[in-house]
Specification:
The protein is an all-beta fold. The chain has one domain: YVTN repeat-like/Quinoprotein amine dehydrogenase (Methylamine Dehydrogenase, Chain H), CATH 2.130.10.10. It is built from no helices and 28 strands. Strands 6-7-8-9 form a 4-stranded antiparallel β-sheet, with no helix packed on it.
C-alpha cells in the first residue's frame, strides 16, 4: 500500500477533496486505479505516486456490496440519499459520508427506487428477484407487495406525482402492472402493448395520465393512465430502448437512450424521433437532464458518462471512462448548483461541474 505523495492539477489548483484524503494518507486497495480517468476530455489531475496502477476499482464509494444499480433522493432534504446495491437497500443521512448503512432487503438487489414526494416515509423498491417491496417508515422495515404481479423481475417503477398510492411497475417479460391502493393489489395494464419487455417508464408530472414505456422494440405511449398503449409508426420500433427522460421544462421533449444506436429525441410527445447530428455510438444505460439548463443532457454508458450541451446532437466525455456500467444518473435540483449523482461500478459518485471532477460519496467495504 502506498501513499499520496503529490498531486498536480493542470490549472495550477491542487486539491484532493474528491477522495476525502490528506497528503500522506494511506490509500485503500480500492483506489489502485488511474484516477486521471475521472476527468473529462482532458487530464484534470495527475497523481504522482508509486501506488498507481491501472486496476479498476471494485467497490469505490459503494453502498453495501458491489455495484450500485439505483440512486434516489429525499424530496426535501438533500443530505438523505437512497441506493440499491447488489446486496440490500442503503440509506445515507449525511450525503453519503456515513458509510451507506444497509436498511433491509440485504439478500436482494433493488434495481429501481421510487420515493413519495408528499410523504418521504413511503418508499417503493423494485428488485430483480422478488418483485416490489414497500416501506412506510423511511426504510426501517419492508413488506413485499406483489399480489397480482405475475413477473417478479422489476425493471422500472414510477409513482403518480400527486398520489403515492398509484404506482406503475415494468417487468422483464410480462409488461406493465398498476396499483391504485399502494401495492395491496396490482392489475396488468398491457392493452396495445405488443412488446412486454419493459426497460424504462416515465410519467408526465404535469399530466400524469400520460406515460411512456421504453421496450425491447421501441417506445409506447399511453394517454389514459396505462389503460391503453400505442406505438407510433416512427416509434423506434427496431431499437432496444433502455432509458427514457423527459425535459423538465417541456414534457413534449423526450429523449430515448438505445443500445447500440445512441440517443434519439422527440419534440412532439413521442410521435416522431430524430437521431443526433453526431450519434453517440455507445450502449446507453442511464440518462439525466440538467434541471437548470435542459439543453444539457447526460448519458451513462458502458464507456463512462457523456454530456451533450445541444440537446443530444453532439456529445463529449464527462468522465468515469473506467466505468463499464453506469446504471443510473439522477439530478438533485435542491442543491445549488444541481448535483448529478452516478450509480454503477464504483458505487455512488457525484459532480457539480459537468463531470470535470467526480467526488466519492463514501467508502464502505463489506
Amino acid at each position: 500500500m502506498g501513499t499520496v505523495s503529490k498531486i498536480v492539477r493542470l490549472n495550477s489548483r491542487t486539491w484532493v477533496s474528491a477522495l476525502g484524503m490528506k497528503f500522506g494518507s494511506k490509500l485503500p486497495p480500492t483506489f489502485k486505479f488511474a484516477i486521471r480517468g475521472l476527468g473529462g476530455s482532458f487530464l484534470p489531475i495527475l497523481f504522482v505516486s508509486t501506488l498507481l496502477s491501472h486496476q479498476l476499482p471494485a467497490q469505490m464509494g459503494s453502498p453495501g456490496h458491489g455495484e450500485t444499480q439505483a440512486v434516489a433522493l429525499h424530496p426535501t432534504n438533500p443530505d438523505i440519499l437512497y441506493a440499491g446495491a447488489a446486496k440490500g437497500f442503503c440509506k445515507s443521512l449525511e450525503g453519503g459520508t456515513d458509510g451507506w448503512p444497509v436498511y433491509g432487503l440485504d439478500t436482494l438487489s433493488p434495481r429501481v427506487i421510487a420515493v413519495s414526494q408528499s410523504n418521504s416515509d413511503i418508499i417503493y423498491a423494485g428488485t430483480y428477484e422478488m418483485g416490489v417491496h414497500k416501506s412506510e417508515n423511511g426504510a426501517s422495515s419492508w413488506n413485499a407487495i406483489n399480489n397480482g404481479i405475475s413477473d417478479l423481475r422489476i425493471r422500472a417503477l414510477v409513482l403518480h406525482p400527486q398520489d403515492d398510492q398509484i404506482v406503475f411497475a415494468g417487468t422483464e417479460g410480462y409488461g406493465i402492472f398498476k396499483t391504485t391502493d399502494g401495492g395491496d393489489s396490482w392489475k396488468e395494464m398491457n392493452s396495445g402493448l405488443i412488446d412486454k419487455v419493459i426497460r424504462s417508464l416515465v410519467i408526465d408530472p404535469k399530466a400524469p395520465d400520460i406515460l411512456y414505456a421504453g421496450t425491447w422494440h421501441g417506445v409506447y405511449t399511453t394517454m389514459d393512465g396505462a389503460k391503453n398503449w400505442s406505438a407510433d409508426p416512427d416509434g423506434l420500433y427496431d431499437a432496444d430502448v433502455r432509458v427514457l427522460a423527459l425535459d423538465p421544462t417541456d414534457s413534449n421533449i423526450i429523449y430515448a437512450g438505445t443500445q447500440p444506436r445512441g440517443v434519439f429525441r422527440s419534440v412532439d410527445g413521442g410521435k416522431t424521433w430524430t437521431a443526433g447530428a453526431e450519434p453517440l455510438a455507445e450502449h446507453i444505460e442511464s440518462m439525466a437532464i440538467d434541471p437548470t439548463n435542459p439543453s444539457h443532457v447526460y448519458v451513462g454508458t458502458k464507456a463512462g458518462v457523456f454530456l451533450s450541451k445541444d440537446r443530444g446532437d453532439h456529445f463529449k466525455s464527462a468522465g468515469l471512462r473506467w466505468s463499464n456500467h453506469a446504471w443510473t444518473l439522477v439530478f438533485d435540483p435542491k442543491t445549488s448548483p444541481p448535483t448529478l449523482y452516478y450509480g454503477g461500478v464504483g458505487g455512488v459518485l457525484k459532480t457539480i461541474n459537468e463531470g470535470l471532477w467526480w467526488e466519492v460519496t463514501g467508502v464502505k467495504l463489506r
